[in-house]
Amino acid sequence: MSAQDVTDVLAAIQVIRTKMPWLISISNEERQQIPKLGDKTVGFDEKCAMYMASNPEFLPGFIDIAEVNKDRNLRSPLMQVQPHLSTLAESFGDTLLVTSSEIYLADLAYYANVREAAKRGRPGADTIFNDLKVRFPGANPQPPTPPGP
């Protein structure tokens, strides 16, 4: 991924944020506690929308029907975009996870070779091993003493 690609992707994300300045964030606790309008409750909402329009006398005084209708009008386009953003975010996360894993596996292989070289008394290996081993506290803190002459 080139530096220009990064710049272009960040610009595209900024375009999305500019087009959706009203996006909000909520806490995990709020996410768990908030009532949800999902597949099982959409039909209920459709009936309520119909009844609210035809029988507004039953609307509680604290309900601003104009705001409810704004939310209803926003939900449909959000629902069209959401699956694309979700799959993109999931693919991005998976790619980052696999890329990071491959790097870490290479690091572990290098560390194992340095540890083996330190065991065999290769010059310079013990310095590298001692610097890297702090990542693994309690796991064989000292390389075995190399065999004598």
Pick out its properties.
149 residues; mainly alpha
Produce the secondary structure layout.
Layout: H1 3-19, H2 28-33, H3 42-54, H4 65-119, H5 125-132
Short structural description:
This protein is mainly α and 149 residues long. Helices cover 66% and strands 0% of the residues.
Report on this structure.
This protein is 66% helix and 0% strand. The protein is mainly alpha-helical. The protein has one domain (3-135). Helix 4 (65-119) packs antiparallel against helix 5. The mean pLDDT is 91.
Q: Which shape, going by the Cα principal axes?
A: elongated
Tally of separate domains: 1
List the total number of helices: 5
Largest sheet: none
Uncertain regions spanning at least 5 consecutive residues: none
- Secondary-structure-derived class: mainly alpha
Mean pLDDT: 91
What series of H and E elements makes up the topology? HHHHH
Distance between the termini: 51 Å
Rg is 29 Å
> Percent of residues in beta strands?
under 5%
**Count of DSSP strands:** 0
Helicity range? 55-70%
